[in-house]
Amino acid sequence: MVRKTKEDAEITRKRIINAAREVFCIKGVSRTSLDQIATHAGVTRGAVYWHFKNKTELFHAMREQVFLPLIDRMDDTLLANIDSSKPSTTDPLTRIEDFLQETIQVLNEHLETRQTYEIMMSKCEYVDEFATVLQQILSNCSGIAEKYETIYQEAKNLGLLHPNHDPKQLAVDTHLFFTGLLHLWVKDSDGTHFRIQASQLISAHIKFRRK
Amino acid sequence: MVRKTKEDAEITRKRIINAAREVFCIKGVSRTSLDQIATHAGVTRGAVYWHFKNKTELFHAMREQVFLPLIDRMDDTLLANIDSSKPSTTDPLTRIEDFLQETIQVLNEHLETRQTYEIMMSKCEYVDEFATVLQQILSNCSGIAEKYETIYQEAKNLGLLHPNHDPKQLAVDTHLFFTGLLHLWVKDSDGTHFRIQASQLISAHIKFRRK
DNA sequence: TTATATACAAACATGAATGTATGTAAATAG
DNA sequence: CTATTTACATACATTCATGTTTGTATATAA
C-alpha cells in the first residue's frame, strides 16, 4: 500500500469523520459498525483504528467539528460589542432574534451541521461514555441563558420590555422555546410541520416580548 | 416448569415490560440484550420471545403503557367542558398552566413515566423501525398545538391577552416552550438546572401572556 | 543513505446477541 | 378423563462487530 504523507493522512481522517456522520445519520450510532464507516470512507477498519481509539472517540470528534465553532458564533452574534465603548447599533431584541434566525439558517444551509444535530438529537443514546455529553449540554445551558439575560437586561434598561417582565425569566423562556424549536425542527425532516414556519415562530416569539 | 395460569402469564408480561424499561433506562435500548431484560425480570429469553416478537415490539409496548394514558389526560385537563353548555369555571390561561404543571408533577411522582420519557428522549435511536415513532410525535404536535390554540382563542375572547397577540402563534410558542422544558427537565437528572425551577418557569411563561 | 516511524490493509481470535427449534409440565377444553 | 394448548426453559446455530496482531510500503528523520 502506498504510504501517505502527513497531509494525506489528515485528509483520510476527515473523510472518516464525514463518513461516520453520514452513516450515523442513516443507521443510528449504535447500529453503525466501524466497517460500514470505513467502507463508506473508502478505507478499511485499519485506517479507522489508526486515527481513532474506537467508535466513541470518533463520535466525539465528529461532534466537536460542529459544536466547537457554534460557541464562537454565539459569542460573536449575541454579545457583539457588549463591552465596547459605544453601545450596540442594533437593538437588543433584534440581536437575539438575529442569532436565532441565523442558527436556523445555518441548519438549512449547512448539511454537516444539520446531520450532526440530527444525530445528537435522535440517533444516539446518552448512556455510559456518552452520558457526559448530556452534562456538557446542560452546563452550556446556563451559559447561554446568562447571555440571553444580559441582553434582555439591556432591553429592559432601554424600556423595550413590559415593565413586569423579568429578564432572567425571559432568558430561560427563550432558551426553552429555542430548545424545543431545534428539537422539532430537526425531527421534522420533511419540513411540513416546523421547518416552513420556523422563521415566523422566532419573529413571533420576540414580538411577544416588545412593549 | 410450573405451567402458569392466564393471569400469571399477564403478570409475567408486565414484569418483562417493567424490566425492559428499567434496563433500557440504564443501558440504553440498543445496548440492552433480551437476556438482560429476561434476567432482570426473573425469567429467561424464552418468556420474552413468547410474549413479544422481538425487542422492537417490546419497546413499543413499553412506550404505549405511558403514552396512551397521556393523550386521555391531556383532553381531560385541557379541554374540560369545552363544548359543554356552560363555559369552563377556571380561566383559560390557568387551564393551560394547570396542564403543564400537572405534567411536570406526573413526571416527579411517577417513576415509570419519568423513565419512559428519559428513554424516549435520550436513550433510544430513531432509525429504521423506530423512525415511525418520530412521525407519530410530530403528528401529535399539530393536535396539541390546536388544543392550545382553542384555549388561547377563548382567552382572547375574554380579553385576557394582549390585543396584538395571535392565539395560533401563542399556541405553538407554548408548545415549543414546553417541549424544550420537558427535554431539559428529563436530562437534568440531578435536578440542579431545570427541575428545581420548572414550576416557576411555567408560571412565568403564562404570566408573559396576560395583559 | 539507512533506520525508523508512519499510515494504513489484511488476517485472526473472541464474544455476544439474535432467532429458532425443541423439550416439558401443567392448565384448560371437550 | 384425555387431548391439546399454553407458557415458558433449554439448547442450538448463525451472524456480526469488536479489538488486536501482523504485514508492508513508503515518508521522513538522522
Describe what this molecule looks like in 3D:
Two copies of one chain form a homodimer. The first copy, chain A, is mainly α and 211 residues long. Chain A is built from nine helices and no strands. Chain A has helices at 6-27, 34-41, 45-51, 55-78, 92-109, 111-122, 131-157, 167-187, 198-207. In chain A, helix 5 (92-109) packs antiparallel against helix 9 (198-207). Chain A is elongated, with a radius of gyration of 20 Å. Chains A and B meet through helix 7, helix 8 and helix 9 of A and helix 7, helix 8 and helix 9 of B.
Helicity of chain A, in percent? Answer: over 70%
Helix-strand topology string of chain A: HHHHHHHHH
Structural class of chain A: mainly alpha
Shape of chain A: elongated
Largest interface: A-B, 46 and 46 residues
Number of strands of chain A: 0
The rounded Rg of chain A comes to 20 Å
